[in-house]
Design brief:
Radius of gyration: 18 Å
Largest sheet: 9 strands, mixed
Strand content: 15-25%
Length: 266
């Protein structure tokens, strides 16, 4: 028997994408897959089981095999998406591209959308989702908003207030609309919104802070870092609940899938 969640059932498996960066430990110094602990702590505290998904060669078959093994997906934060993916030349401040991670996360997200696997995008994860859906990004927000209010640098998270739109999945998850204080660390943001995405939160300067995919039972992405506020696990709990419902529907087969998912999202 596996670990039990707060509902008494076997906890759903949540896959989290990871960084692939140079890391040093003792005498070892080289590329390594890693993820800050806050991410998987948030998953486990919300009742899920965290499974780390490092960047690796990917095709449709590999992506399908990964998603066969998990119940939900989190696309995490990290370096900037390659501007070539949305038809632009890089801004001088844009990170050197992580082509393997871009390809990995794009394939996982596209496959998750196709099979309606619940997913949550965080910071870079929102940007990957928007680009996967054919949208574009603002490569350097200070050029647009005139300040560094979203990225203080030095590993210090900025606090910003976002306005959550009423009647959205995000408002349901947070059990509120209107103002919400969040932790920010980004210098890019959504420009042209991708196909099927609904904007669900902005800041007072118009910067898009959250989107959701309206064609799937659970597809939410936020520009901020909810893993930095572990006293508020509502987004992670919502994903875990949706992952549990997805697993249940998958085990019941196609005939009962629609009814099970509708109950899980009630």
């Amino acid at each position: 028997m596996g670990p039990r969640d707060r509902h008494g059932s076997t906890a759903p498996l949540i896959g989290l994408t990871t960084y692939l960066e140079r890391a040093q430990q003792g005498v070892w110094d080289g590329p390594a897959s890693f993820l800050p602990r806050q991410y998987f702590d948030a998953v486990t505290r919300a009742g899920g089981i965290a499974v780390l998904l490092p960047p690796q060669p990917v095709d449709a078959e590999v992506a399908a095999s990964v998603l066969d093994a998990i119940d939900g997906l989190i696309v995490t934060g990290g370096k900037d998406v390659d501007p070539a993916r949305y038809g632009q030349e890089p801004h001088p401040t844009t990170d050197a591209p992580r082509l393997d991670r871009d390809a990995w996360e794009d394939a996982l997200l596209a496959a998750a959308i196709e099979r309606e696997l619940p997913f949550l995008g965080i910071c870079r994860g929102l940007q990957v989702l928007n680009v996967t859906r054919g949208g574009t990004l603002l490569q350097h927000l200070p050029d647009v908003v005139g300040s560094d209010r979203y990225n203080l640098g030095g590993g210090v998270f900025a606090t910003n207030e976002v306005s959550v739109d009423d009647g959205t999945r995000l408002a349901d998850l947070l059990e509120r609309s209107g103002g919400l204080a969040v932790k920010s660390y980004h210098h890019q943001a959504v420009d042209r919104v991708g196909e099927g995405l609904r904007v669900s939160a902005r800041t007072d300067d118009g910067t898009i802070q959250a989107v959701e995919l309206t064609t799937v039972p659970f597809g939410v992405a936020v520009q901020w870092h909810p893993e930095e506020t572990l006293d508020d696990l509502r987004l992670f709990a919502g994903l875990v609940d949706a992952a549990r419902a997805h697993r249940s529907a998958r085990s019941l087969g196609p005939a009962a899938r629609s009814l099970s998912l509708s109950k899980g999202n009630a």
